[in-house]
Amino acid sequence: MQNPAQGRAPETWRGRGILMLCHFTGMVDLVALPVWVGALVQHYGFGLEQAGITVTAFLAGAVAASLFTAPRFGRLPRTACVAGGYGIAALAFAGAALTTDFGTLALLHLVAGLAAGTALSVTHGTIGRSANPHRLFALAGTALGIGAVVFYAAVPPAIAAHGGATLFKVLAGLMAVTALAALAFPRHARAGHDQAAHGRLSRAAWCAIFGVAAMALNQALTFSMLDRIGIMRGFGQEAVNQLLVVVGLVNLLPAAIAGFLDKRLNPVRVALVAAPLQAALAVTVSLAAGYPLYALAACVYPAVLIFMHTFLFGLIARLDPSGRALASTPAMMMTGSAIGPALAGTVATHAGFGGLAALAIAVGACATLCFALVARQSGTPAAATA
């Protein structure tokens, strides 16, 4: 099934570059999770629960903004939403760099999440209405991987040298640069999508959305605690920081490979393999007693979600060509991510990392069930058709 050619974003490298930057900036929280939680614990004196709740405030704001924005995607002023959203987020993070109060930080995180979530929803809806959403999302994922390498190489040492506020200064600067770039946000016509924008989403689309959300929850549960697991197992902060750089390097590959395999793999079958594999790696990270096994699982862990999500992004674009479902991508990704840090902190505090592993298995089973329902609703052969 082909997407209609009408209503697509301009296929220029300038337009793609802006969309890639907007994607990276909006998704940087998923890259920064272990550094973010670690900085709040180590430099602000927060417990795991407080640190998790602070990060969750940002992610919850992004989810709320996405849920509000997605149904209205076809009617919103896109440049104003993206540039304004990232601009407000920059101001909120600049304010966060000036305080150490838990309540104030949580409130500023919420404001930043609402603003950045609006911008990211519009970005993903626009990618979803491009000529080839799978390929463009793969490019955006590769950009996220490149940015992750730079982030992991530069930010943790800077935080160690200059304090936790450095993280918020970096985030504020990144948001500000993206806001300026988004003043030239790509436009596209709405012809051919107005009628689709009022239709109901298919059951297959809803199942795919819930499956992605479940995998995002599993990602956040373990990845947000990655730093703390390594430190509490006695591996040392330097070893954990070096591991994060390697994780970033490994994550350069999955989106690019997924883009290359666009027409070669069935997206539903990819998801059916990815969900249990992710759960198995989460268990390994949580329970590994030795550094080599912990590091090996941690390196591969984020790549599974990145690879799978590229395929599911393209599938959902075919199931809903209006762009509304993909405008809810931040809600898909960050509903789980919003719950994850706070839930992981609570579970780790009261049930240890073994409890975290058991939870990862349960969530992985839910994700697998959702993707099995996608296969049943849409038919796997149809899902594979471009």
Automatic annotation (TrEMBL):
<dbReference type="InterPro" id="IPR011701">
    <property type="entry name" value="MFS"/>
</dbReference>
<protein>
    <submittedName>
        <fullName>MFS transporter</fullName>
    </submittedName>
</protein>
<keyword id="KW-0812">Transmembrane</keyword>
<feature type="transmembrane region" description="Helical">
    <location>
        <begin position="329"/>
        <end position="347"/>
    </location>
</feature>
<feature type="transmembrane region" description="Helical">
    <location>
        <begin position="105"/>
        <end position="124"/>
    </location>
</feature>
<feature type="transmembrane region" description="Helical">
    <location>
        <begin position="353"/>
        <end position="375"/>
    </location>
</feature>
<feature type="transmembrane region" description="Helical">
    <location>
        <begin position="294"/>
        <end position="317"/>
    </location>
</feature>
<keyword id="KW-0472">Membrane</keyword>
<dbReference type="Pfam" id="PF07690">
    <property type="entry name" value="MFS_1"/>
</dbReference>
<keyword id="KW-1133">Transmembrane helix</keyword>
<feature type="transmembrane region" description="Helical">
    <location>
        <begin position="243"/>
        <end position="261"/>
    </location>
</feature>
<feature type="transmembrane region" description="Helical">
    <location>
        <begin position="167"/>
        <end position="185"/>
    </location>
</feature>
<feature type="transmembrane region" description="Helical">
    <location>
        <begin position="268"/>
        <end position="288"/>
    </location>
</feature>
<dbReference type="GO" id="GO:0022857">
    <property type="term" value="F:transmembrane transporter activity"/>
</dbReference>
<feature type="transmembrane region" description="Helical">
    <location>
        <begin position="80"/>
        <end position="99"/>
    </location>
</feature>
<feature type="transmembrane region" description="Helical">
    <location>
        <begin position="18"/>
        <end position="39"/>
    </location>
</feature>
<feature type="transmembrane region" description="Helical">
    <location>
        <begin position="51"/>
        <end position="68"/>
    </location>
</feature>
<feature type="transmembrane region" description="Helical">
    <location>
        <begin position="205"/>
        <end position="223"/>
    </location>
</feature>
<feature type="transmembrane region" description="Helical">
    <location>
        <begin position="136"/>
        <end position="155"/>
    </location>
</feature>
<dbReference type="InterPro" id="IPR036259">
    <property type="entry name" value="MFS_trans_sf"/>
</dbReference>
